[in-house]
Structure formats: structure tokens, C-alpha cells
Amino acid sequence: MTDSTSPQKPVPQPIETAPKDGGWVLGRVREQADDTHWQPWTAVTWSDGAEAHDFGWYDNDGDRQEPTQWVPFPDPQPHPTGWTPPVGTIRVEEITGEGWTCNGQPCEVPWRWAVFIERPDGSYDEYRETHHEVTFEQAAARAKRWREKFGLPIVTVALDKNVVPLLPEATRQ
Predict the structure, then answer these.
(1) What contacts 80, CB < 8 A, 6 or more positions away?
(2) DSSP string of 87-149?
(3) Which tens digits make up the pLDDT trace of 122-140?
(4) pTM over 0.85
(5) Non-local CB neighbours of 122 within 8 Å, separated by 6+ positions
(6) According to the model, what pLDDT value does residue 61 have?
């Protein structure tokens, strides 16, 4: 006689069918015991990473995993990771210019360009960090890699020469 109130076991599905929506799933990451600390299942979430080779499944420690199957987490569900597919535009913005000063003295800024994803509502895609580059060529190359990876258009914005940046007040002694 079977107990009709006992929960049914989830049936493992191929990892290719797992949701890639910022949530967590249990992924079967090892087929056989290879050490005394072997755990066949671990919590994994999808990430597109910063570079093309970073696509994949990652555990809670940020280590890449190669699951072959998945099952949903039982309730209560873990908090979502915040990952969502990128939408909007890739922005290449000039953020410093020639002749910058700090407290009235010339200063050297180690980067000049920022590359980031701007969502359609104008907000910043916090999941994909901003990259700072020294030259426009470096920034354009990163933007091109992101365009190939995400399929988003690139917008380049040069520093407006008529805008004076807000600089900190000089220190008085």
C-alpha cells in the first residue's frame, strides 16, 4: 500500500531544459563518487558572465559547474540571483578628457572610457559590471564582443566639451 499523501519525487530532466531566469535549480554535477566529500547534486544558477567563455552554470561559491540534469528546488525556494537576459543598449561613454585637473593641479586619470549596458528605462544593468578602458579602441573592442554575445546595439557617447565636470572643492589648510 502506498501513502497518497507523500510527495512525489521530481524526475530529473536534461540540463538543456532548465530555466535560465535568475532562479536556482538542483543540478546533477557528478555521475559517480570521486572522493569522500562527493555530492551528486548542488544548487546552480545560469550566468552569461562578462566574456563569451563565461556562459554556463555556477554554484553559490561562483564556481563553474557542468550539470547534466536538473530538478526544481522544493519549497521554500531560494532567493533569485537577479540575473536576467540583457536588454537595452551597450554604451561606450567617454568619462574623462584632456587637461583634467584636481584641486587646480593637472591629474592623470588611468582610464577614459566606460562600457556598460543601459536598460530601456535608462537604468544601469547591475548584473553586468561596467568595464573601464584606457583607449577608445579597447572600449570599442569590448563593446563589439558584448554585441556578438548579447545581440544589443552599441551607442558611443563622446564627452561633451561644453560640460564642466563637478570637481571636489580644494582642500584648505
Answers:
(1) 21, 22, 23, 24
(2) -SEEEEEE---TT-EETTEE---S--EEEEEE-TTS-B-TTS--EEESSHHHHHHHHHHHHHH
(3) 998 877 888 899 999 999 9
(4) no
(5) none
(6) 78
